[in-house]
């Protein structure tokens, strides 16, 4: 519609439809990837969503160097068509099938398509069945009363705070205004070339993060990501504050490190962690609310970025994002549980305040290797 539109109203209608469809994908795709994966590769598949988002950004950047916006709309159809056709042949999530139909041939068929020949399908079937029966016993369906349950309201709060932290790190404000940021910096590098370098680094970092997330865990990557935001945005703000002539390379370096930091933590993990901590009967509501809130925050940040710069100056805007990122690190340390290697049942027990030992990765924050701790101290005060 946008590619052939001859009036402004048709362009707006096309963008509204595109935005609606994108919102659905953002809510469903990470959840689907988590539900079809095994615990061993759950982190890698969960970050797959963000990996292809970053690839899409570079994809559009490269074609945008040579094509007009109407052709970019047509180019954008290609991955959408591939996904639409490809999903016809994909199995439904075994977890969803078990919740809807119970132990049926559909669940067995889906698992056989998704697992290798030597997988313990019978064991997984029993686990899915037990989970579904427990979920049905605990709830006949989602209602507002469910928010009284700690294993519902805590995941809801964590999911939405992480979505807020993701967008108010300033990532989309930076990506959407990267050319003007480079032009204002006085860098001798062509803004389009610099943008391509930054976005390519984002793809490489997201893929790298996906490869290490199941080894290091989610929490440590979120912390490292937030610290990276604080440092790079703080330095970038100082660059503009000091009006550092002769250092035109610094904004490029800062933004490369910034998007790398974002891509290993606050880029992919908020999307995937929703499916790792939310009980099945509340998944739809929590995921939908998180997605809607994410896009609302993205709209506010990108729409008001220019106003923020006018009110706080350019350096003040970046320092504001750095301050919010510092808050995101503190929130992660205090309230976000490690989900690596944990089942949904274990996460529900954690949120109910039961003491469950959690592997925080190769090292905890004190440097001790794989120390176990009681997560209820971290999350029950959310």
TrEMBL record:
Checking Pfam families in the record gives: Sugar_tr
PROSITE patterns per record: MFS (PS50850), SUGAR_TRANSPORT_1 (PS00216), SUGAR_TRANSPORT_2 (PS00217)
Top-level taxon of the source organism: Eukaryota
The parts of the chain that form a coiled coil are 111-138
Domain spans labelled Major facilitator superfamily (MFS) profile: 1-340
Which cellular component, as a GO term, is one annotated location?
A: plasma membrane
Topology relative to the lipid bilayer, per the entry, is:
Multi-pass membrane protein
A GO term for molecular function: transmembrane transporter activity
InterPro entries from the entry?
MFS_dom, MFS_sugar_transport-like, MFS_trans_sf, MFS_Trehalose_Transporter, Sugar/inositol_transpt, Sugar_transporter_CS
> According to its UniProt record, where is this protein mainly located?
membrane
Which parts pass through the membrane? 12-32, 44-63, 69-90, 152-171, 191-213, 220-241, 247-269, 281-301, 316-337
Key words of the record: Cell membrane, Coiled coil, Membrane, Sugar transport, Transmembrane, Transmembrane helix, Transport
- List localization entries: Cell membrane
Q: Which PANTHER family match?
A: GH07001P-RELATED, PTHR48021
* Entry protein name: Major facilitator superfamily (MFS) profile domain-containing protein
Species source reads Medioppia subpectinata
């Amino acid at each position: 519609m946008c590619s052939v539109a001859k009036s402004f109203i048709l362009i707006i209608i096309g963008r509204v439809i595109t935005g609606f469809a994108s919102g659905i994908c953002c809510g469903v795709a990470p959840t689907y990837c988590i539900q079809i994966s095994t615990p061993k590769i759950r982190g890698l598949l969960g970050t797959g969503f963000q990996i292809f988002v970053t690839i899409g950004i570079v994809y559009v950047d490269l074609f945008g160097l040579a094509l007009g916006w109407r052709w970019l709309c047509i180019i954008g159809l290609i991955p959408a068509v591939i996904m639409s056709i490809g999903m016809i042949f994909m199995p439904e999530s075994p977890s969803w099938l078990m919740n809807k139909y119970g132990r049926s041939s559909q669940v067995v068929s889906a698992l056989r398509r998704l697992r290798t020949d030597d997988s313990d399908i019978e064991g997984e079937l029993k686990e899915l069945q037990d989970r579904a029966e427990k979920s049905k016993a605990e709830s006949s369906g989602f209602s507002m009363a469910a928010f009284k349950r700690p294993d519902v309201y805590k995941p809801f709060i964590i999911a939405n705070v992480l979505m807020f932290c993701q967008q108010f790190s300033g990532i989309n404000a930076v990506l959407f205004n990267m050319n003007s940021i480079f032009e204002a910096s006085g860098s001798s590098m062509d803004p389009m070339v610099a943008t391509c370098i930054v976005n390519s680094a984002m793809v490489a970092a997201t893929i790298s993060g996906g490869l290490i997330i199941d080894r290091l865990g989610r929490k440590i990557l979120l912390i490292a990501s937030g610290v990276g935001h604080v440092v790079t945005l703080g330095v970038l703000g100082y660059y503009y504050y000091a009006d550092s002539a002769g250092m035109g390379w610094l904004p490029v370096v800062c933004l490369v490190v910034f998007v790398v930091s974002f891509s290993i933590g606050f880029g992919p993990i908020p999307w995937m962690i929703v499916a790792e901590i939310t009980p099945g009967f509340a998944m739809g509501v929590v995921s939908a609310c998180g997605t809607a809130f994410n896009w609302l925050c993205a709209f506010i940040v990108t729409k008001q970025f220019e106003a923020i710069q006018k009110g706080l100056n350019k350096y003040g805007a970046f320092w504001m994002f750095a301050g919010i990122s510092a808050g995101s690190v503190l929130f992660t340390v205090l309230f976000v549980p490690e989900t690596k290697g944990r089942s949904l049942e274990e996460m529900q027990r954690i949120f109910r305040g039961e003491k469950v030992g959690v592997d925080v990765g190769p090292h905890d924050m004190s440097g001790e290797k794989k120390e176990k701790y009681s997560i209820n101290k971290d999350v029950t005060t959310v």
